[in-house]
Amino acid sequence: MNGRIDRSIDLGPYVAAPDDGMIICRCEEVTKGEIRRAVHDGMFTITEIRRYLRTGMGLCQGQTCARLVKQIVAKELDVSPDVLEDAVARAPFRPVPMRVLANEAEGRTR
Amino acid sequence: MQQSEVLIIGGGVIGCATAYYLSKRGLSVTVIEKKQIGEGGSSRNGGGVRQSGRDPRELPIAMYAVEHLWPSLSDELEMDVEYYKKGNLRLAKTDAHLKILQGLTDRATALGLDVRMIGADEVKAINPYLSDEVIGASWCPTDGHANPMLTTLAYYRKARRQGVRFITGESAQRIVKQKGRAVAVVTDYDTYYAERILVAAGFESNDLLASVGLFVPMNRILLEALVTEAQPKMFEQMLGTAEADFYGHQSTHGSFVFGGSSGIDAYTSDFDRPVTQGMTAPSICRGIMGYFPVLADAKIVRTWAGWIDECADHVPVISNVDEVPGLTVACAFTGHGFGISPAVGQILTSLMTNETPMVNIDALRYDRFKAKI
Questions:
Q1: Distance CA B21, CA B10 (A)
Q2: Disulfide-capable partner of B326 in B109, B182, B225, B242 (CB 3.0 to 4.6 Å)?
Q3: Are strands B2-9 and A96-97 parallel, antiparallel or unpaired?
Q4: Which residues on neighbouring strands pair with residue B250, listed in sequence order?
Q5: In this predicted structure, which of A27-41, B17-31, B97-111, B256-270 has the lowest mean pLDDT?
Q6: Residue limits of the BFD-like [2Fe-2S]-binding domain (chain A) (predicted)?
Q7: B168, B289, B302 ranked by CB distance to A7: nearest
């Protein structure tokens, strides 16, 4: 969420749902239930969820699951998805072999 | 108006660890964080839990943390912080490198740390993946690494469960004094009264300390890190080099996390948030490949930058403030705060409950900085 958040707000108890076992982040195999529980553990921002569970940290960098994760977190917090700030996109955006990335300047390869 | 026994400004690993240890003692604690939990260096560092290579003034804190706190931290916080106590290799390729490492090693052994110089054969036995160009290393078998993001969030989670009130997205503006004593902090939202106030806000601590006339000499320095895709399990040591070309480790996940710099990052830091530079990750990659040719085909999936609150004398300020009773400061960790954070949390708990810390921290006082003439 953007803006001020009191992390002691009462979200109510975590109630297991039939689809909690559904894989949401395919790269890192994180389920819907894990994401919902993370919110109850106090992870209220997309970045905290990502650092806690590795959602969006895999090979696709969240290009597949980012919107789904956001919807799940917003629902658990009972807020609109709009108020949740996206996690920062990180270079190089597509996985690049080390030997290629290292070759950025002439004469600087190994 | 809000009230608690202790108020902490800064929701990084230091603030969260201190909140945890204070609340474990039954104190009521409020933490105010301007952005989100672990926004700064706490989530951006290389994860080293090192004793070797440390300044003698902070080495005893690191040794205490490694001996007494890190090994049981996952159990205590009921969450795996991915701590490995499998040693640190600091690698050398030239005689000049060996000389640098010998100096570091001599200073650490004088303080009782088990660290020694080893030759190429022993290095290869510890880590068979290294380049044949490596001619030696310093080896500290009790060093290691942990996951900084999970450690910070584990302290936060447990502290929150113990009743600590965390508020994020709220900005502390100034400290309020009454009859010379720090009694409250004014934020952009409310005023928070407390018997003890801790400022642990990294480089930005100075913005708040200025309101009571204090200043810690530190610079904001950019460093970068990168992570590879998951690789087969290769080794568990923490690694660095004599020339600091790079440092890092293989995580539980299998990815390699390496930090480093291009050498000129410090002059590219003038943004409102840490931004990666095009030349830095390639520089780190060349550094890694020079020692680990086997990783040349590993794919980099992500790079990031973070700021170090670099102190004028390269060790932190961890101190009560004599002329402002009620105020405690912990900042200027200079890029090596993560490894000592559990011990610092306990030291700060002692300082704020009028006990003598288990490690002497007189050399880390806030008023140690003097004009040179």
A1: 15
A2: B182
A3: unpaired
A4: B256
A5: B256-270
A6: 23-74
A7: B168
Q: Which residue has the tokens 């600087």?
A: A108
Longest Cα–Cα distance of chain B, Å, equals 66
In chain A the domains, ranked by start, together with CATH numbers, are 23-101 (1.10.10.1100)
* Identity of the residue in B165, B228, B302 whose CB atom sits nearest the CB atom of A8: B165
Cα(B296)–Cα(A99) distance, rounded to whole angstroms? 5
- Reported in sequence order, the residue ranges of chain B that DSSP labels E, i.e. its strands, are 2-9, 29-33, 48-49, 88-92, 116-119, 136-140, 144-145, 165-168, 172-178, 181-187, 191-199, 218-228, 238-241, 247-250, 256-260, 299-311, 317-320, 327-331
CB–CB contact A2 B302 (8 Å)? no
Task: Name every chain A residue with its beta carbon within 8 A of the beta carbon of B153.
Answer: 43, 48, 51-52
Place of tokens 């801790």: B198
The CB-side HSE value for B101 (13 A sphere, CA atoms) comes to 27
E strand or H helix at B82, and its extent?
none
Between A3, A48, A95, which is nearest B299 by CB? A95
Q: How far apart are CA B330 and CA B295, in angstroms?
A: 38
Per-residue pLDDT tens for B292-328?
999 999 999 999 999 999 999 999 999 999 999 999 9
> Which amino acid is located at B344 in the chain?
V
Q: Is residue B20 within 8 Å of B38, Cβ to Cβ?
A: no
For residue B286, give how far its alpha carbon lies from the nearest alpha carbon of chain A (Å): 5
Q: Are strands B48-49 and B144-145 parallel, antiparallel or unpaired?
A: antiparallel
Q: In which region does residue B292 sit, left (phi positive, over 0), alpha (psi from -120 to 50) or beta (all else)?
A: beta
The residue among A62, A87, A58, A84 whose CA lies nearest residue A71 is A84
CA distance A17 to chain B (A): 23
Complex prediction ipTM: 0.96
Q: Which residue of A has its CA nearest to B288?
A: A98
CA distance A99 to B293: 9
Interface of A with B (CB under 8 A): 1-8, 41-45, 47-48, 51-52, 54, 57-59, 61, 88, 90-92, 95-99, 101-105, 108-110
All domains in chain B, ordered by first residue:
2-46+149-217+313-364 (3.50.50.60), 88-141 (no CATH), 218-311 (3.30.9.10)
pTM for this model (two decimals) = 0.97
